[in-house]
Amino acid sequence: MAQLLAQLSGLPTVVLLLASGLLIGRAGFDLVDPELLGSGLEPIVGLLVSLVLFDGGLNLRLAGREPRQTLLRIVLVRGLLGLVGSAALAHDLAGLDWPVALVFGAIVLATGPTVITPMVQQMRLKASLAQVLEAEGLVLEPFSAVLAALLLELALGELDSWGDLAGALVLRIGGGALAGALAGFLLAAVLQRLPVTGERSGMVRLQVTLGVLFLLFSGAEALLPEAGLPAAVTAGVVVGWRLDTEADQLDVLIRQMAQLAITMLFPLLAADVSWGELSPLGWGGVGCVLGLMLLRLLLVQVAGVGLPLGGREKLLLSWIAPRGIVTAAVASLFAIRLEEAGVPGASLLKGLVFLTILLTVGLQGFTAPALARRLELVDPEPEATAGGSANGASEAAPEPGEVLATGVE
User: Fold this and answer.
1) Contact yes or no for 100/348 (Cβ under 8 A)
2) How far is CA 274 from CA 280, 345, 353, in A?
């Protein structure tokens, strides 16, 4: 219903999905309780998130030197300065103790591709800016999840020093990326040998892809916790690079599955939020989130020094930074671990993270399309959506009915 209403009204899909989750969950009519899934909630969320990240990696195309430089600058500046700035805001305004504040700072580094991708598609943002925003989310989402997990282990005394943290960070991200690259090469080799046309070719390619992806994610998580996310992104990048133009049919099928995953995940995780977790934060929590928005504005301006970016482009890149599914999932899991360990302020962590998601998705989801049109950064051609430009093509992707009729009968 949320997707249908967004299609008919032009309202942001992610905002309606988030609102529907609040309505049916603990903050509303209490019809859906994600905790009833028990230990199954974490693997369900993990597998669906890996699908969304794989889809993003499959479509990741940074054509030209300028988008790559912009991405590198934003990632480095936000990774270094954003962590400290976000933690300081959480400590000073929301009242989190420093160990918990640092975990929060790492969690909110991520700008979720689960939110940004449908947002830039719906607003038809220009290809170069859409690529940078989507790529930023794909890079920082796995990095922030791994960094937050290690900061949590440091706070709980499971790591002895910052040196141990740095070594574990390199091991988990590097190990995940290596596993993803190997799986991506293997999957691409298999897909290249499968027929592209035929009555069941699309279904077989989709099933093989999902099977390899879910085995990759589960195996990486079992060997190195949190390594499944960088593995999924890297596998998608490698498959997209190896198949190139042959990836079009697979791309459409995976994108449809990823959209279904987003439609399931947002209401599911939003249903787990109660007003009782948000109210203790008060205006300090709201001020912290607004401070995060201003901090991004400052950091993007710093990152843009020396780059051929105009003021309009910098302003839009500064404003679009919604947090998404991985942020919510990581916060829910970490809050439980902190509470079990008796760490002060653990109960505020989940509430502050979800307040960040609610405000960033709500404010930016409603205002970003109008801002992009005002700044004249929207593609005038309806066919040239951000999703189409992300994979380097100027043509619109086939409609779901066409794919189902030709490839998945």
Assistant:
1) yes
2) 11, 17, 13
pLDDT tens readout for residues 48-62: 889 988 988 887 776
Task: Give, in degrees to the nearest 5, the angle at Cα 399 between 317 and 265.
Answer: 55
Q: List the Cα angle 241/174/216 in 5-degree steps.
A: 65
Whole-angstrom distance, CA of residue 64 vs CA of residue 62: 6
Global pTM reads 0.83
pLDDT tens per residue, range 107-137:
999 887 778 877 888 788 888 888 889 889 8
| 80 contacts: CB under 8 Å, gap ≥ 6 | none
Q: Residue 117 burial (CB < 10 Å; 0-12/13-18/19+)?
A: buried
- Residues 6 or more apart in contact with residue 69 via CB below 8 angstroms: 307
* CATH architecture of structural domain 2-406: Up-down Bundle (1.20)
Bridge partners, 125 (sequence order): 378
Tokens representing 307 are 């780059």
User: 36-95, pLDDT tens digit by residue?
Assistant: 888 888 888 889 889 988 988 887 776 667 778 888 899 999 988 999 999 999 999 998
- Nearest CA to 267 out of 83, 6, 19 is that of 19
